[in-house]
Each structure stands twice: as C-alpha cells, then as structure tokens.
C-alpha cells in the first residue's frame, strides 16, 4: 500500500501518524530514530511511502525520502573510473591512473548456487507447501541481493571518492539478457539473468550523485573482448578469468581489462563532446 505525505501520513518528532481504514489516524514510534532523523530536515523531503507486510505477518512502514541534487558537469571532469559488473567479481573498478579495486563475488556466487538447487528441488515436488516455501525463498533471495548491491555500490562510490573521481562509467545494460543468453551455458545463464545488475548500477548511480560524482553509461559492446592496450578485438583474447591479447600479448585479469575499457569509453565521451564544440574551454592570458 502506497501512502502520500500529508494526505495519508505525517511525521512528528520520533513518530509517524498514519491514516488507517478502521481506526482513523494512528501514531507509531519510528524504529532507529537516532539514525533516521538525519533525513527529517532539509534538503530531504518526504515522498510517497509504503506499508509492507513481512513474512512473519507484521506490517512495516517504509519511509521514502528524496532530495534534489545538482548534477555535476562532465566539462569539469578530470579523473574517470570504469566499473565492470559480472559473476566472478560482482564489480571491478579502474580509474584513469589505473588504480583498481575488486569486489569479490565468489561467496555470493556459491550462495546463489545453493538457492538455485533449493529452488529446483522444491519445483520438482510441485506441492502446495513447496510452492509456499518457494515464494518465501524468492523473497529471501531478493532481499539478499538488494543488501549485497547496497553494500557493493557503497564501497564502489567510497573508492571513487577516495581516488577523487569525477565521473563513473557504467555499461548500458538495457538489452543485456537478449545479447548474452545465447552465448552462455545454462548454469551461467541463470547466474547472469538472476543477479540484479541493473539494480546494482542504479544504486551506484544515486549514491555517486549524492557525493557530486557524475555517472555516464557507455556502449558495452566488445568491452570484454577488446585489449585495452592495443584495441585488438577477439573472443579468443579471453582465457577464462584471464585476458590474453592474441595480437600484442598483453595479459590482465579479464574483468579488470573490461573495467579499463569502460573507463576509456567514459573518458572518450568527454573528448567527443569537446571536439563537437559542446564543451567550452576557458583560456586565461597573463597580460602583465
């Protein structure tokens, strides 16, 4: 159930007042108020929020707040960072000066495999009780993914701030399933399709903008097959987790190579705009 601020709910000090169907307005104490109160003042604004029923039968009010953030200009960008998302590593980040950070996915991948096996076992039973368990399992898995994506995106943005990054480059994954399903084995296809990559990117996007970092989406075509040193493109360049360029012999972790290519494309987008006259350059002459 979605509630509108002022019409359906109001916030007063450490309580929320909600309009109910049977009892009119009712007041409820806000959990973790000491943490939440930072969002109860400018520049944050209360937005449409939800009342959600959890698996244990309890109802929770999920308060949503928003703020307007002035998006930085790519014209002012100096340091870029590419982020490659995947299965072996949930994310790999690489900056213009080749500082990098890996965000491991091994343990998470194993947990996803456990969920997959549990799902297959329950689906094979086909009973009503199995279907109920499947539904609970799906919710648990989604919450797990969301929590991981929040943690990973927070760490990515923290690394970007640490390295004074101006722009984070991400791949445009709009048609990622259609473009990759035919190239993956069944098990890989499940892992690839079921992980919320777009959610991870959206978390990176809004967290980056909160700290004044611009986010650009680039064409993902051949980022994994292209040598970031000589630009040679070949699927033979990928040797499992390693990237080995068949043209120049350059070797690197495959995901890191992809992240560097994304960084290159993000940086190129600025130069393309500049060459088209979309970016202005201010020159100051010393006349003394």
From TrEMBL:
InterPro entries in alphabetical order: Cas12f1-like_TNB, RNA-guided_DNA_endo/Transpos, Transposase
GO BP annotations listed: DNA recombination; transposition
Record's keyword terms, sorted: DNA recombination, DNA-binding, Transposition
Domain Cas12f1-like TNB: 197-262
Pfam families referenced in this protein's UniProt entry, alphabetically: Cas12f1-like_TNB, OrfB_IS605
Keyword Transcription regulation: no
Residues in Probable transposase IS891/IS1136/IS1341 domain copies: 72-176
Single GO term (MF): DNA binding
The keyword RNA-binding appears for this protein: no
Coiled-coil spans in chain: none
Family: In the C-terminal section; belongs to the transposase 35 family. In the N-terminal section; belongs to the transposase 2 family.
NCBIfam families hit by this protein: guided_TnpB, IS200/IS605 family accessory protein TnpB-like domain
Protein name listed in UniProt: Mobile element protein
Organism classification: Archaea, Methanobacteriati, Methanobacteriota, Stenosarchaea group, Methanomicrobia
């Amino acid at each position: 159930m979605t509630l509108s601020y002022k019409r359906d709910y109001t916030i007063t000090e450490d309580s929320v007042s909600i309009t109910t169907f049977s009892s009119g307005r009712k007041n409820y104490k806000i959990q973790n108020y000491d943490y939440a109160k930072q969002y109860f003042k400018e520049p944050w604004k209360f937005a449409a929020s939800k009342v959600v029923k959890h698996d244990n039968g309890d109802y929770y009010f999920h308060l949503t707040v928003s703020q307007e953030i002035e998006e930085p200009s790519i014209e002012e960008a100096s340091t870029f960072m590419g982020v490659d998302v995947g299965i072996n590593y949930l994310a790999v980040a690489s900056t213009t000066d080749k500082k990098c950070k890996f965000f491991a996915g091994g343990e998470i991948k194993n947990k996803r495999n456990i969920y997959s096996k549990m799902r297959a076992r329950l689906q094979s039973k086909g009973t009503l009780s199995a279907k109920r368990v499947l539904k609970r399992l799906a919710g648990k898995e989604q919450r797990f993914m969301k929590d991981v994506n929040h943690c990973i995106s927070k760490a990515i943005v923290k690394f970007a701030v640490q390295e004074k990054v101006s722009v984070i480059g991400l791949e445009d994954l709009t048609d990622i399933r259609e473009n990759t399903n035919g190239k993956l084995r069944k098990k890989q296809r499940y892992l690839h399709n079921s992980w919320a990559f777009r959610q991870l990117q959206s978390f990176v996007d809004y967290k980056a903008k909160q700290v004044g970092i611009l986010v650009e989406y680039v064409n993902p075509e051949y980022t994994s097959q292209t040598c970031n040193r000589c630009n040679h493109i070949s699927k033979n360049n990928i040797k499992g987790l390693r990237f080995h360029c068949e043209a120049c012999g350059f070797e690197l972790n495959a995901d890191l190579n992809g992240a560097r290519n994304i960084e290159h494309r993000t940086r190129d987008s600025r130069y393309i705009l500049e060459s088209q006259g979309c970016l202005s350059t201010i020159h100051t002459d010393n006349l003394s």
